[in-house]
Amino acid sequence: MVNQVQRVDGSWQTSKSDSSGASNSGESSKESSRCSTPLLDADRSDRLREKMRKRMESGDPWFSLEFFPPRTASGAVNLISRFDRMGSGGPLFIDITWHPAGDPGSNKETSSMMIASTAVNYCGLESVLHLTCSNQSQETITGYLTKAKQLGLKNIMALRGDPLGTDWEDEEEGFNYATDLVKHIRSEFDDYFDICVAGYPTGHPEAQSYAEDLQHLKEKVDAGADFIITQLFFRADTFLKFLRDCRAIGITVPILPGVFPIQGYQSLRQLVKLSKLEVPEEIMEVIEPIKDNDAAIRSYGIHQAVEMCRVLLDSGAVPGLHFYTLNREVATTEVLRQLGLWIEDPRRPLPWATSANPKRKVEDVRPIFWASRPKSYIYRTQDWDDFPNGRWGNSSSPAFGELNDYYLFYLKSKSSKDALLKMWGEELTSETSVFEVFTSYITAQVNRGGHKVMCLPWNDDALATETNLLKDELEKVNRRGVLTINSQPNINGKPSSDPIAGWGPAGGYVFQKAYLEFFTSSENVTALLKVLKKYEPRVNYHIVNVQGHNMTNAQDMQPNAVTWGIFPGREIVQPTVVDPVSFMYWKDEAFALWIEQWAKLYEDESPSRMIIKYIHDNYFLVNLVDNDFPLDSCLWQVLDDMFELGCTTILTDRFLFCVSFFFFF
């Protein structure tokens, strides 16, 4: 297959590519991008047990969160959104429970394996996958562990698990104790996995005695477990006694208390039944009179959890807290806020969301086009063998995977079809209706139907804080049919700690070129190409339609660094680039979202669908880079000039038409 790229001088540059569209001219950027640049965040490559050790040595307490797989596909979408929100508070890790009845090791979107994989790969969260012995052979367990490793999971919580019936039945070809599972993991996978095991502050309900259960716990640790998470409890003294007893018999690994903020009467009863625990009388005396008032119970549960956690942390013996969330966020988040553990650090390791997959630990460069769709970028590059480190390399980028399934649960919009119709229009009457949707999103004001537009097909979240700096200018151009999907302001040496633009280690400075990406009509593009001639070489551009006809003035099709940082004792890091070849992969996705996410909301052949299809078929996708970052951005003036020239052309055409009409008659 041959690609032709029209350059600004009208000439055509030809390059060969394979059937996937990847250019084969020059060396692969996967090979040419190798660089000795150190990782911005060394902890990304650390093991979980090492992260714990460092936090313990520094006296910095942490928290972790437990979730269970949902029962439905829509529940999976909601849970991934919750990961993103709760991940912003800084958990050291999350863990995902294993339910044998729910096909937990399958590729179903509701399986434990897929939820944990998504948390690691697409949400960037260090994750622990539960694995039980219940009703499973050694061969099956080995298969699950192999699959977990292939998916980038590197932490396992080894459990015996609950019996499928009333009593535990021995598995002839499996394991009957968590100790055996730990030994098997170490035997088959050496030291690859960090292993967690369960501890019981009041003793396992099936153990003959508390002392015997402590010995079983020590056997699990001696077999190779790296840390312990306990069953829930209701009094701080219960855990502190358990901790002392563990240390007394030689258990030295970290022991994390399992904390359950009481959130409702029925959920408390169910959890107590499953764990075979007794709720202290003083707690029941408070809860019984308010058992029908969920808000009151949640308020009490938050207070009780905060008071208990303060005692634990003040003891100096508890390095971190593990929370049983029941897949809810309000109570746990509030407890963490009151404890001062919920810290939304505005400084990011990189300007984009990183993956926790160890295979991607060197990755520190990406094209800017996927800035608002990081999960999509990870999905499309999941089969790469290695990743750019230090620089993107030349334009012969590696092939991106196809994105044909827009409805994978981790790529799907968090909003329902009904919600999207309310935001984007139950019925569209013209292109102007679409302009209004984009404008409502930028301004965060209600649309003509009285609904706030909280997302677009190209961005499933509210407007980023950084983009708010451009809000007024973005509003103006969107009203006039420049439909923006990506932008960044110019930055000239902001501290890396800046709450809006900052990223990377402390003590550094970050820089950005002004960038703007948008869809617009062919008439606007005609005027824009004329205007851009007077802004060269300051402004680089790339303009393409859905058929692949593209125009650019990118020098030799090389990537253009649009974000970089300078940090003490490190090389310059350039984490985002505008790359002409990658742009051609992105354009397929960007145009397809008009159809896949928007047009399909409407009936076939309906006026609304035809309007979106017209835009898809006839508009161009444009990106502009202002290379003179120390100066105020000129991109808004470029667009003003485009609008002015476009209006002049229209008026001239109308004048010539009128003159012709006059002389004809």
From TrEMBL:
Q: Could you confirm whether the keyword Flavoprotein appears in this record?
A: yes
**Hey, which family's this protein in?**
Belongs to the methylenetetrahydrofolate reductase family.
Segments of skewed composition (Low complexity): 15-27
Kindly list the cofactors needed: FAD
EC number annotated for this UniProt entry? 1.5.1.53
Recall the GO molecular function terms of this protein's record. FAD binding; methylenetetrahydrofolate reductase (NADPH) activity
Q: In which pathway does it act?
A: One-carbon metabolism; tetrahydrofolate interconversion
Q: Which superkingdom heads the taxonomic lineage of this protein's source?
A: Eukaryota
User: Domain MTHFR SAM-binding regulatory: where?
Assistant: 347-645
- Among the record's GO biological process terms, what is one? methionine biosynthetic process
The record, for InterPro entries, names: FAD-linked_oxidoreductase-like, Fadh2_euk, Mehydrof_redctse-like, MTHFR_C
- For region Disordered, the annotated ranges are 1-46
Protein name, as recorded:
methylenetetrahydrofolate reductase (NADPH)
Annotated Polar residues bias: 1-14
Describe the reaction catalysed, as an equation: (6S)-5-methyl-5,6,7,8-tetrahydrofolate + NADP(+) = (6R)-5,10-methylene-5,6,7,8-tetrahydrofolate + NADPH + H(+)
What is the originating organism of this protein?
A: Gadus morhua
Presence of keyword Iron-sulfur = no
GO CC terms in record? cytosol
Q: Where are the transmembrane segments?
A: none
Checking Pfam families in the record gives: MTHFR (PF02219), MTHFR_C (PF21895)
Alphabetical keyword list: FAD, Flavoprotein, Oxidoreductase
